[in-house]
Specification:
Helix 1 links the parallel strand 1 and strand 2. The protein contains eight helices and eight strands. By secondary structure, it is of the alpha/beta class. The radius of gyration is 18 Å and the shape is globular.
């Protein structure tokens, strides 16, 4: 499963969205559902620690950068700003998930180097993990794609759509590289996250048009009749 946890210090939001008001419900959701994989976007350091401390049996893979590391990265203008770094994490049930390896890549023209393109308003990255789940190899890739450009273009504007498709293309190219992902060894891959786009958007339909090559399908398409909460 995947959800955007919205950080812990949303001063622009009403009190009900403060982490202190929401965390007990989040802990209960983790503990009641016991999902083997939970991809979380906008998860701050304190939220990460709270979830691990209050949600039994979970581990996490992520890429946290220290303040000094942020200052060393080319293009990081304000290392103290939450807008500079978009943390993506994958929580997993340690009892069911074994042999975990993980890493990150960046949704830019230099995916192997922490970076931000000139048209991105934030640094955007993907978190991946390879593992065995109940004895079977598999891979999970979690993303949070841009919601607006550096010029504040949003919605279905041409600059925003172009950026979306470029970022998704980085994911496609990364997965097409056998040095990163080999289905004969790594098993099936699950791509999940906050795409800031609806299912009819080209960032999804482009994958469906290339389905003969990749063998992709939408989990929601197969579960729609069974899951009345899907929307």
């Amino acid at each position: 499963t995947t959800f955007n946890i919205r950080g812990s210090n949303n001063e622009e939001d009403e009190t009900s969205r403060e982490w202190a008001s929401r965390k007990e419900g989040v802990f209960a959701w983790f503990n009641e559902n016991q999902h083997p994989f939970v991809c979380v976007q906008e998860c701050s350091d304190d939220q990460r620690g709270d979830i691990l401390a209050n949600c039994a049996g979970y581990g996490v893979v992520d890429k946290e950068l220290s303040l000094s590391e942020k200052r060393k990265l080319h293009g990081w203008i304000n290392a103290n700003s939450a807008d500079d770094y978009e943390p993506v994490k994958i929580f997993y049930k340690e009892a069911d998930v074994e042999n975990v390896t993980s890493g990150t890549f960046w949704l830019t023209d230099t995916p192997n180097t922490p970076s931000k393109m000139s048209n991105q308003n934030q640094h955007r990255m993907a978190q991946w993990m390879k593992c065995t789940y109940k004895g079977c190899p598999m891979m999970v890739v979690a993303v949070h794609m841009s919601q607006k450009t550096s010029n504040n273009d949003q919605g279905d504007s041409e600059p925003m759509q172009s950026l979306r498709e470029y970022e998704m293309g980085v994911v496609q190219s990364w997965l097409d590289n056998p040095d990163n992902y080999d289905p004969s060894v790594d098993g099936p891959v699950v791509l999940a996250g906050d795409f800031n786009a609806n299912q009819s958007n080209a960032v999804f339909t482009n994958w469906k048009r290339n389905n003969a090559k990749r063998g992709w399908y939408y989990a929601r398409d197969t579960m729609w009749d069974k899951d009345q909460n899907a929307a």
